């Protein structure tokens, strides 16, 4: 195959460019030898101890967070009494001032046993698990009923005829109707 004038000119330009790249690039052996002579960077003990300390602090913070969430939240009655004596609130019964002031009883929060809290927690977990399962079932039915948007483009009126085999009791003339005319 003969090269025309333009192709020869382009080929010569690329040859010049390749030679310029080869001259500018360092040799492989030189780069390899410099890499072999370079001392490897050593990991200083300070860097290692700093990373170990940071990891220890991280583990301590995570453990503290887990421990504080797992502790039962019970009121400290002894500390509250020592801090301030609890007095029931006093409200005026009328605005005239003739009647004595009434003392209203305070509502104490009912103490919930650990078993009741555990049962409530288990019930919440079970409800969340059931909700997650329902969502999985809903997603699975949506995926299983999916159809390709182009499926209708691939279907035709004669799909049933094209997908079925001819019956043995059909005549030859009917079978020839499916063949192209010669």
What's this entry about, in short?
With 182 residues, the protein is an all-alpha fold. The chain has helices spanning 5-24, 28-37, 45-70, 77-83, 114-144, 151-154, 159-163, 172-176; strands at residues 90-91, 102-103.
Report on this model:
The protein is flat, with a radius of gyration of 44 Å. It has 8 helices and 2 strands, in the order ααααββαααα. The chain is mainly α. 59% of the residues lie in helices and 2% in strands. The protein has a two-stranded antiparallel sheet. It has helices at 5-24, 28-37, 45-70, 77-83, 114-144, 151-154, 159-163, 172-176; strands at residues 90-91, 102-103.
Distance between the terminal alpha carbons, to the nearest Å? 45 Å
Share of β-strand residues: under 5%
What composes the largest sheet? 2 strands, antiparallel
How would you state the average pLDDT, rounded?
A: 78
Q: Report the helical percentage.
A: 55-70%
Query: Which stretches are low in confidence, meaning pLDDT under 50 for 5 or more residues running?
Result: 78-83
Radius of gyration: 44 Å
Structural class: mainly alpha
SSE string, helices as H and strands as E:
HHHHEEHHHH
Tally of DSSP helical segments: 8
Number of strands: 2
User: Going across the major beta sheet, what is the strand order?
Assistant: 1-2
